[in-house]
Specification:
single chain, 385 residues, alpha+beta, 5-stranded antiparallel sheet, elongated
């Protein structure tokens, strides 16, 4: 017999009170009186299990709306729930749409939400930067997407600009975004225009990595040339907005010509863009002058012969072993294999923290309690324009 019916049967024939019966059945008095009331009002049918779903759910989403949310996500796999709703709102302005979180649950239920893999964070840029108004104070470097040639090869334009004058220092197509092809182009730019005070890049290869100080072979070379290395915060292209706007101009000017043309035609299109952008296109921010009329090369000449790195008197110098470790206060501490057989400078900045630099570039801090190198954790916003 059902527990509720058994309780009612005992209640009907029992001389005991409801409290004693409830105690015997292990239920509360409130539940006992509820069962009795339902039996009195509806008979045995009143004791059937009832749905706990609310009669009215203000967050319920119409089936057709949910279907449209799923359809937009399938059309735009990179869209999150907010962008999906924005797109649906654009298509159907009068449609009643759910909250962002509800749309996210709909997409999750449809199996369209991929669980994000944890990625080790990039070391923060330890040095604040400003775009400034001086030539060669800060250059930007990046790749402008990719274009396929008529022969099926990919072309990745490597671009460099001076932030103050907007002058395009270089725009060269390469077949891979790697050190081997980037360094010769940058050497040519350094020979042609001298050295900047700093270079700003994103966190992609070959400019940055997740190693100590975010250094790669390329950015390590910049440090050795006396150039400050700066990186934008991940997923924050506004910190390199001037360079990004130049990329937009490049794509509008030659994007169509780049697609499906020969390698030689692509390189010619890139050089034609540089000449037009530098010498013919005026900029409001430059008082309607052209970049070429404003830019002057750097007085710091480039030399392929690197000078030895010197450290200050208040820094202790350690040699990095072949396996990337240094010895400090009896501890072997891993820094980076990239710096093997190079010297780093150490300086105690707090009682239990030691600053580690390669030349002037901050690699991180040694935590004396754990005997480990911890990366810089503070991002400097720079100037967003």
């Amino acid at each position: 017999m059902d527990l509720k019916m058994q309780f009612i049967a005992d209640w009907l024939r029992s001389e005991h009170g409801v409290s004693d019966l409830a105690r015997g059945y292990g239920i509360s008095r409130k539940t006992a009186y509820k069962w009795i009331r339902r039996y009195q009002e509806e008979g045995a049918a009143g004791l059937q299990e009832r749905s706990r779903a609310p009669h009215h759910c203000p967050h319920a989403v119409a089936e057709d709306v949910a279907e449209q949310i799923v359809a937009i996500k399938k059309d735009h796999p990179s869209f999150g729930p907010k962008k999906v709703l924005d797109r649906l709102r654009e298509l159907q302005p009068t449609l009643a749409l759910p909250a962002d979180s509800t749309a996210g649950e709909i997409l999750k239920a449809a199996g369209l939400v991929k669980k994000r893999r944890y990625k080790r964070p990039y070391p923060a840029d330890p040095q604040p930067f400003e775009l400034g108004d001086r030539n060669n104070a800060l250059w930007s470097v990046d790749y402008k997407g990719q274009y396929r040639t008529a022969g099926g090869r990919w072309c990745y334009p490597l671009t460099m600009t001076d932030n103050a004058s907007r002058y395009v220092l270089g725009c060269h197509g390469v077949t891979a975004t790697d050190h081997a092809q980037a360094k010769p182009i940058m050497e040519w730019v350094f020979h042609e225009y001298g050295l900047p005070e700093g270079i700003l890049s994103d966190n992609g290869s070959p400019f940055a990595s997740r190693s100590a100080g975010g250094l790669t072979r390329l950015s390590k070379w910049w440090v050795e040339l006396g150039i400050r290395v700066h990186r934008t915060r991940p997923s924050t292209p506004t910190q390199n907005a001037r360079h990004e706007r130049m990329h937009g101009s490049l794509n509008r000017a030659v994007g169509e010509r780049m697609r499906g043309s020969s390698w030689r035609q692509q390189q010619a299109a890139l050089q034609a863009f540089c000449q037009e952008f530098n010498e013919q296109r005026s900029h409001e921010a430059l008082g309607r002058q052209t970049p070429a009329s404003v830019y002057q090369p750097s007085r710091r000449a480039y030399s392929p012969v690197l000078r030895p790195i010197e450290y200050n008197a208040d820094q202790a110098v350690r040699n990095v072993r072949h396996n990337g470790e240094i010895k400090w206060q009896g501890h072997l501490i891993y820094v980076s294999e990239l710096l093997a057989r190079h010297r780093v400078g150490l300086k105690e900045v707090e009682d239990d923290r030691v600053e580690v630099r390669y030349s002037t570039h901050l690699l991180g801090h040694i935590n004396l309690k754990t005997a480990r190198l911890e990366p810089a954790c503070r991002w400097h916003a720079g100037e967003e324009v």
